Amino acid sequence: MTKLLLSATALTALSFSALAADLPKRDAAPLAPVAVFTWTGFYMGGQAGVSQIRNLFSDIDRTVGADVDDVARKTGTGGGVHAGFNHQHGAYVFGVEADVEASSLRYGFTSSQGWGYRAKLGVQGSLRARVGYAFDRTLVYATGGLAAGNASVTYFYLVPETFSNTRIGWTLGSGVEYAVSTHWTARLEYRYTALAKASNSPVLAWTQYRDEQSASLQTARVGVSYKF
Fold first, then answer.
1. Which of 70, 72, 79, 202 supports an S-S bond with 107, CB 3.0-4.6 Å?
2. Residue 52: CB partners within 8 Å, gap ≥ 6?
3. Cβ–Cβ < 8 Å for 53, 77
């Protein structure tokens, strides 16, 4: 009886094995492709930051050639917009970017004789190249190019006298940018900017002096961009 029961069990197992072998096989469902992020494309956004300006003031006596120098250091805030284009080749990213922003920087000095100047840096901007290395969604980059800023200066002694100068210069810096999503990125950037010297000749405030000013800025900015 036991041998008969074992034989029946073995026969049943063999029958199920043969039936399973004859059933059609189903292929495994294909895996969904993993999306690869790319930095290539146009983008635009906004930025805000804190700047420290160093302005060298030289007041030159036109009669004897002597000069009085003063260095003003002030901190202010600013913000604006930017736009650009990136092209990614492998892990390297090459691009060009332009920005424009307004500033709250105010600086100046008053001499012991009571004369002096007050100045403010208004609108400034830049046109720069960007070169970076991408770690997937994180981009580390360097940037540099042309810079420009408009500064207005008011001299006061007998009567106030105001000049406005647009100064061309250069800017150089670095930053890190992270892609929060397919379209949105956030950045942190530092730049040093040097603006060309401006020369003014006040005739109402004081007649015998010619003024020269040269400014440099150190700026830390945060920004967000939308990539098309």
1. 72
2. 73, 74, 75, 217, 218, 219
3. no
Q: 3-state DSSP call for residue 208? A: coil
In DSSP terms, which residues pair with 144 in a beta bridge?
129, 172
Residue 25 lies in a domain: no
* Domain that residue 202 falls in: 42-227
**End-to-end CA distance of the chain, in Å?**
80
Q: Are 46 and 223 in contact (CB under 8 A)?
A: yes
What is the arithmetic mean of pLDDT over 55-70? 68
Q: How many CA atoms lie within 13 A of 34 on its CB side?
A: 2
Q: Assign residue 159 the CATH number of its domain.
A: 2.40.160
Domain count, the chain: 1
pLDDT of residue 100: 97
Give the Cα separation of 152 and 70 in Å (integer): 17
CA distance 158 to 227: 54
Q: Which of 212, 215, 163 is nearest to 65 (CA)?
A: 212
Residue 98 lies in a domain: yes
pTM, two decimals, is: 0.78
Write the pLDDT tens digit of every residue in 191-228. 999 998 887 777 765 556 677 788 899 999 999 999 99
